[in-house]
Structures are given as structure tokens and as C-alpha cells.
């Protein structure tokens, strides 16, 4: 087969979610609607937190950063898909594809680390309430966010640089609506052992570490809550964790669904649909989870809505 290396390769072709051209207008409308809801919903969360003085706490600082990350995560993939459908051109340049791989890895990793940081925040608030303001001070909060960003960037750069060493065949069709790292590696004609080894190693350290942190945090949280003398105290403690637990379940549940789908089916289209659930649905639903299950967020959003109505 004719090989194309990095210098000669010009573009890939994104096959999207379906071959049926009659469904493309429906898919365009659906993804445009989901993208607008994702951006507006997360912007409302950010605005409500910044305008509500009672929400200027570490927990809501992390939530606002999570909302910014979700907006960026969706913006990396969905607009390009909408442009391709609108122009009836499924091509994506080599540089754009590498950029998507890099930024998807950054924002996906950042979400992973942020959920672990938010679990640690809940652990300190419930298990060490008297030392909460000392442990979760501004310096430590900013440091944890910057460390999460640094680790996410390092992980993304490692994967992106390893893709640069690959040579590709003449078959450059990606059965997805964005450039997913695993799909790009499958298209390579050169040896991909190091790339796959890096994926599993990075998943173990950069993915498994935050997951273990979340699990251990909630083991201690549950243990502390069960020792509380009153049912009201238990309910109040659990209610502060409900939104975060729902987001964690959604993020890792959809991710686990992608893994199961790729393992049990040979259909690349089905795998693409599962990946869509992982990359699009969590950023879409996170604002609703936090606004509907959090009493303070409801109050802040109500005040914000009142101000907007007054101005209008």
C-alpha cells in the first residue's frame, strides 16, 4: 500500500454518525441545539456563581471551572462537525485533526482531574470541617486547578507527539464525527505498539489516579456520615455530595459504556455513537444536574433570572 508520512499527509475524512444523507439535516439540528444548550447552560452556571456572593466558596469555584472546561470540550468537536454537514464536506486537515486530538485530551483529562479535586473538597468539608478553611484556602485551590491543567496538558502533548511519528495508509476515513485518538492510531500503517502502550499507561496513571481518589474520598465520606448522631446531619451531608456524585456517575458511566461498546461490537458506527454519548452528553447535562439538585444554585439562578427579567 502507498504510505503517506506526516509531511505528505494533507487531510482525513470524517464519516460522521450515518451514511444516510437524508438524516444529515436532523443530525445538524440536533447537534446545534445540544451545543447551544451546553454553552448557554454552563454560561448561566458561571454567571450565577460569579454574581452570587454566597457561592464564592471552593466548591463553586471548581464548579465554575468545570463549566468553562465543558464549554471548551464541546467547542473543540461540535462546531467542526456542523460546518462539515453544512458545507457537505467531511474533510479535516491533518493539523486540525492533531489539534482536535490534543485539545480533546486536555479537556477530557481536565474534567477527570476536576472531578477528583471536587471529591477531595467534599471529603475535607465533611470529614475535617474545622480545618476546611485552612486546607481549602485560595492558594491550595488555585494550585490544585493549575496542577490538574498541567497534568492534562502533559498527557495530551505526549499523545499528540506520539501521533506525529506515525505513517498512514491511503485509507484515511475516520468513522467518527471528530478525530479520536484511538481511531487515528487504527489508521496507521506503521508500528503502533508505543502509541497503544502509552494509551494504557496514561489511562492507568492519569485516569486511574483520579478515580481512586474519588473512591477513597467517598469511602471516608460515607464512613463519617454514618457516624453522625442525627438523621438531619446525615441528610445535609449527603445532599452536598448528591450533585457531584451524579456528575461523576454520568462521566464515568458513559466512558465505561464506550469501552464496553468497543469491546462487544465490531461496528465502528456503534462505537462512534457511544463516543458521542461520552463527549457530548456530560457537558450538556452537567449544568442541569447542578442546578436541579443544588438548593443554593437554584436560589442563585432564580436571582439571576429576576435581574435579567428586570433589565428586559
What does this entry look like structurally?
Helix content is 77%, strand content 3%. It is mainly α and 312 residues long. A 3-stranded mixed sheet has the order 2-1-3. α2 (58-87) runs antiparallel to α3 (94-127).
Beta strand %: under 5%
Low-confidence stretches: 1-8
Q: What is the residue-averaged pLDDT?
A: 84
Helix content: over 70%
Give, in order, the helices and strands. Answer: EHHEHHHEHHHHH
- Overall structural class, as computed from helix and strand content, comes to mainly alpha
> What's the β-strand tally?
3
Order of strands in the sheet with the most strands? 2-1-3
Q: Which term fits the overall shape? A: globular
Largest sheet: 3 strands, mixed
Tags for this model:
3-stranded mixed sheet, 77% helix, 10 helices, 3 strands, 312 residues, disordered N terminus, mainly alpha, single chain
Amino acid at each position: 500500500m502507498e504510505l503517506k508520512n506526516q509531511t505528505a499527509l494533507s487531510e482525513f475524512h470524517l464519516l460522521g454518525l450515518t451514511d444516510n444523507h437524508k438524516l444529515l439535516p436532523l443530525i445538524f439540528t440536533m447537534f446545534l441545539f445540544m451545543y447551544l444548550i451546553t454553552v448557554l447552560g454552563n454560561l448561566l452556571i458561571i454567571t450565577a456563581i460569579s454574581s452570587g456572593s454566597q457561592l464564592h466558596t471552593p466548591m463553586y469555584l471548581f464548579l465554575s471551572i468545570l463549566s468553562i472546561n465543558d464549554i471548551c470540550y464541546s467547542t473543540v468537536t461540535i462546531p467542526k462537525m456542523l460546518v462539515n454537514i453544512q458545507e457537505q464536506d467531511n474533510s479535516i486537515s491533518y493539523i486540525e485533526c492533531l489539534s482536535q486530538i490534543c485539545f480533546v485530551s486536555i479537556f477530557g483529562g481536565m474534567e477527570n482531574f476536576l472531578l477528583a479535586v471536587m471529591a477531595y473538597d467534599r471529603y475535607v468539608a465533611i470529614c475535617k470541617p474545622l480545618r476546611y478553611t485552612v486546607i481549602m484556602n485560595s492558594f491550595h485551590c488555585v494550585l490544585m486547578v493549575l496542577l490538574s491543567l498541567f497534568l492534562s496538558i502533559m498527557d495530551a502533548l505526549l499523545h499528540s507527539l506520539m501521533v506525529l511519528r506515525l505513517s498512514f495508509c491511503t485509507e484515511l476515513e475516520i468513522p467518527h464525527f471528530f478525530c479520536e485518538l484511538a481511531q487515528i492510531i487504527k489508521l496507521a500503517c506503521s508500528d503502533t505498539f508505543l502509541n497503544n502502550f502509552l494509551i494504557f499507561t496514561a489511562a492507568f496513571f492519569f485516569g486511574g489516579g483520579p478515580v481512586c481518589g474519588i473512591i477513597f474520598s467517598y469511602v471516608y465520606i460515607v464512613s463519617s456520615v454514618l457516624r453522625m448522631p442525627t438523621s438531619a446531619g446525615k441528610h445535609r451531608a449527603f445532599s452536598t455530595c448528591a450533585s457531584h456524585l451524579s456528575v461523576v456517575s454520568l462521566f464515568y458511566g458513559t466512558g465505561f459504556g464506550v469501552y464496553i461498546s468497543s469491546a462487544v461490537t465490531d461496528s465502528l458506527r456503534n462505537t462512534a455513537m457511544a463516543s458521542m454519548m461520552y463527549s457530548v452528553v456530560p457537558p450538556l447535562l452537567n449544568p442541569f444536574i447542578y442546578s436541579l439538585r443544588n438548593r443554593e444554585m437554584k436560589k442563585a439562578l432564580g436571582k439571576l433570572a429576576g435581574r435579567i427579567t428586570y433589565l428586559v
